[in-house]
Amino acid sequence: PGTRRRSLRRYFSLGRILFYLIVLVPLCLSILYYGFVASDRYVSESRFLVRSASTQDVSGLSSILRTFGISRADDDSYAVQSYILSRDALRDLMKTLPMETILNRDGIDTLSKCYMPWSSHDFENLYQCYIDRVSAVREETTGISRLEVDLFTPEDSKRVADALLELGESLANRMNRRAEADAVSN
């Protein structure tokens, strides 16, 4: 009975240690970080719909709307979404906005910055940070896309979201002009 009691004590003490290490320590660290250290974030959300002058679908309501020059452009919508999340969009944003400064603001906590003390200050790290802060998702049923920009000041969040919408609109307009030119040449 004595050895069994010792092995049970050892089992329960090991279980307690594992419980502390796996549950309580991470929970306490999370509470401390998110409660007292983490920088505030502001989300700017926009919804947009990409329409095209023509499409391949000619059935039902789509054919009626198409006679008026209005149709949903699924491929164009995915192209705009893909562009917003691309390195090209970040490069285009960097032409008009100081993205390195916006993503590495003074006063934000170290873990939220793009450039960690141990990481290199290159475009790829900046892009990974950009992808963590920007999302573009298309709702399948409505065709409406949602753009979210999650940054450290409300002004930065809105400026980046507005600039991305302008860049996306410019891309959609270029694709529509090309499609119209191709239709006229055929």
Provide the descriptors you would attach to this structure in a database record.
186 residues; alpha+beta; 3-stranded antiparallel sheet; two-stranded antiparallel ribbon; 5 strands; elongated
Structural class: alpha+beta
> Numbering strands along the chain, what is their spatial order in the largest sheet?
1-5-4
Any idea what the radius of gyration is?
A: 25 Å
In which range does the helix fraction lie? 55-70%
How many helices?
Answer: 7
Q: How far is the N terminus from the C terminus?
A: 93 Å
Q: What proportion of the residues form beta strands (DSSP E)? A: 5-15%
Order of helices and strands: HEEHEHHHHEEH
Mean pLDDT: 84
Shape: elongated
Total beta strand runs: 5
Poorly predicted residue ranges: 65-72
Biggest β-sheet strands, sense, barrel: 3 strands, antiparallel
Characterization of the model:
By secondary structure, this protein is α+β, with helices and mostly antiparallel strands. The protein has helices spanning 2-37, 60-67, 74-84, 87-96, 99-103, 123-133, 154-185; strands at residues 42-48, 51-52, 71-72, 134-138, 145-151. It has a three-stranded antiparallel beta sheet with strand order 1-5-4. It is elongated and about 90 Å long. Residues 65-72 have low confidence and may be disordered.
